[in-house]
């Protein structure tokens, strides 16, 4: 009974109205895929449409410029908006157009209203993704304040591997993943200096001169 009712409703639609509904369904699936991809990280650092947000974050400590990093982040963020904002536009354009035609509006009027809804949807998605991106960037920008500061190795840094250090980030002592600049091992308790900020919120460190073989008391 329900299937027959659905068939009657579908067959009563004009060809244009059916086309709008079909395209709206396809765009909805694409938009849902983009949303789920963002949640699971497929659209994160490894799969951004715009590429890696930090293509070269191994910033030399002596020339570290937080504003330059922010500028790169902002450009990449707006590049990333392109596909999503277009999908947002198409999503509301076709759904609005289909629904207006379904309610008896002329094709031209339905498309005009769809255009208005589409522009509003594209803008809303662009603004939303931009501010979500800025929230994610805040952690990296703050971590950059640890460059050239001193701290202590908290968990042993193995040769060629990563450990953990205690350093000041934005004035607060924080545990940060770290690697040795020369790829060597640095035992826990060794005073260190942060040299560089790497991708994925990892820093490179070196022992403070004169303390390579000395550990701080725990």
List the helices and strands and how they pair.
Elements: H1 2-11, H2 15-40, H3 66-102, H4 107-143, E1 150-155, E2 162-169, E3 172-180, E4 191-198, E5 202-207
Parallel strand pairs: 3-5
Antiparallel strand pairs: 1-2, 1-4, 2-3, 4-5
Helix pairs in contact: 2-3, 3-4
Q: How many structurally independent domains? A: 2
- Report low-confidence residues grouped into runs of 5 or more: 42-80, 214-218
| Overall geometry | rod-shaped
Q: How many strand elements?
A: 5
Question: Radius of gyration, rounded?
Answer: 26 Å
* Biggest beta sheet summary: 5 strands, mixed, barrel
- H and E order: HHHHEEEEE
| Overall pLDDT score | 76
Strand order of the largest sheet: 1-2-3-5-4
Helical coverage, percent range: 40-55%
Helical run tally: 4
Describe this structure in words.
The structure is a single chain. By secondary structure, the chain is of the alpha+beta class. The chain folds into two domains: 2-145, no CATH class; 148-207, Beta Barrel (OB fold (Dihydrolipoamide Acetyltransferase, E2P)), CATH 2.40.50. It has four helices and five strands. It has a five-stranded mixed β-barrel with strand order 1-2-3-5-4. Helix 2 runs antiparallel to helix 3 and helix 3 (66-102) runs antiparallel to helix 4. It is rod-shaped, with a radius of gyration of 26 Å. The termini are far apart.
């Amino acid at each position: 009974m329900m299937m027959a009712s659905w068939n009657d409703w579908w067959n009563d639609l004009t060809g244009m109205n059916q086309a709008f509904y079909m395209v709206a369904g396809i765009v909805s699936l694409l938009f849902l895929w983009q949303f789920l991809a963002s949640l699971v990280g497929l659209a994160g650092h490894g799969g951004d449409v715009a590429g890696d947000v930090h293509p070269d974050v191994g910033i030399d400590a002596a020339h570290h410029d937080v504003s330059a990093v922010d500028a790169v982040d902002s450009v990449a963020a707006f590049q990333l908006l392109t596909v999503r904002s277009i999908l947002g536009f198409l999503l509301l354009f076709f759904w609005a157009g289909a629904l207006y035609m379904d309610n008896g509006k002329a094709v031209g009027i339905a498309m005009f209203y769809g255009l208005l809804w589409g522009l509003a949807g594209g803008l809303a998605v662009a603004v939303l993704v931009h501010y979500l991106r800025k929230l994610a960037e805040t952690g990296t920008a703050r971590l950059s304040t640890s460059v050239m500061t001193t701290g202590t190795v908290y968990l042993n840094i193995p040769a060629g591997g990563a450990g953990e250090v205690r350093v000041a980030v934005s004035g607060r002592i924080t545990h940060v993943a770290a690697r040795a600049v020369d790829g060597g091992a640095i035992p826990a308790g060794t005073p260190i200096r942060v040299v560089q900020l790497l991708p994925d919120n990892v820093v490179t460190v070196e022992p403070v001169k004169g303390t390579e073989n000395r550990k701080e008391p725990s």
